[in-house]
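re: ur question from earlier - yeah i can do the single chain one, its not a big deal. heres the input i used so u can compare w yours
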Amino acid sequence: MVRSCLLLFLAVNGLWAQFTPVPHEAYYRTLTLQTPTDAIIEVGGLAPLPDGRLAVATRRGEVWILAKPTAEPPTAANLGWSRFAEGLHEILGLTFHDGALYATQRSEVTRLTDRNADGRADEYLCASSGWGVSGAYHEYAYGPVFDAQGNMHNTLNCSMGKTWKGAGEEAKHPLWRGWSIMTPKGYTKPVGFSAGYRSPSGLCRNAAGEIFANDQQGNWVPTSPIIHVQQGAFYGHADALGDQAQTGSLLKQRPEVREDLSVAKAITQIKGYHPPAVWLPYIKFGQSTTGMHFDETAGRFGPFTDQLFVGEFVFAGVNRVSLQRVRGQYQGACYPFVSALQCAVLSLNFLQDGSMIVGQTNRGWNSYGDKPQGLQRLIPTGKVPFEVLRLEAIPGGFEFTFTKPVRANSAWGQTKAQSYTYQHHGKYGSPEIESEPLRLNQWSLSPDGLRLSVACENLRAGFVHEFELPPLISSQGEKIWHQICAYTLNQLP
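and the output i got, formated as tokens:
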């Protein structure tokens, strides 16, 4: 029923032909892991352990250990499931740090340790607490991630309160809701690190120790963004500003939010507003971002080393993001990766063999797929896809780098491209506004066939620049895997 409703929605909106799930089995085979019959494994967090085991946290407050997460066939017995901890409240994040597991539950981060080495946690210690919890449905807590200095970072959903009569708990705004919080090393009380989030369900760090988050479309969030989390920054959601004067707030400025601006204008006209590094256009790249992780497999997962992989809830898939520093700020491009998995993706990570482990639950919301929850692995087959490896801004235009050489006579001049921005307002989401076709010329292919540059006469700072490539062919006769990509151009190089 869920799948049928989604297909009908896409067909009615004229989008199904363009966004039919792309088969990925030639490049990444999908393996479904069997789960214990006595548990409901709605995966809220995944933490690979140094010895090759995998810790799996569930929304229902349990942590399980898989002794052999790469076992095949992936029966429950071969995987070696064992319950490690229980009795927690809605775990939506799990990480291994300094010899212990840290689980983010609704009201605290809990440090879980097995002191007597019997395979069960026997010490539950509070590692961080002190943010507001009212009982409102949407008050999720995510993370944790540790920075290079050992400080703990988490993100907190807005309460999404309403002012209508009878809102009750939903009308409240407890402390630090809509913020990222940092718990300094050696302490358990967090401070307000950055503000302006709606539902920041993905949080991770890159190899350099920098923290990144995402958010989900809604009021003040026109479409899902990827955010470089910086101390004192404001990212747009006005409801968070009620706490900017609180003791512990690190917000550098007091933004005055306006609803008569586009995102492109908000960048220059709202004091303290930091634009996301990347916007993921709605529907074209899904509807709700979730867990994410950088590829640090050193090529074992394919050619996408150091790029960011982002879970997608509604389309039950994963998108890919490449980042570029321009004038000291991150911006970059997004690309489809895989879709049509068995269930909504909520968490993802990488195992020691280089495969991606994907945790899933539809949690009662609509998503593509025919299962309510579970675990799957994406395992490289060894065949590299012909794909846009990265799209980067260059002076006066863009450069595409491919995973394989492009055939010299490919019709790249038929590329369809446009730029647009979004409305920055308190209404739910935003259509693409101020759209304009890109005027592209001077296509140039590098001698090795891997890089294709193009001049653009009408670059616009603060706008998304979207490209739909023609069906390019590699020098080996392979058709390009995905044709669409979109670059968020906050700064002109």
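Residues 388-489 form a domain with the Immunoglobulin-like fold (CATH 2.60.40.1220). not sure if urs matches, ping me
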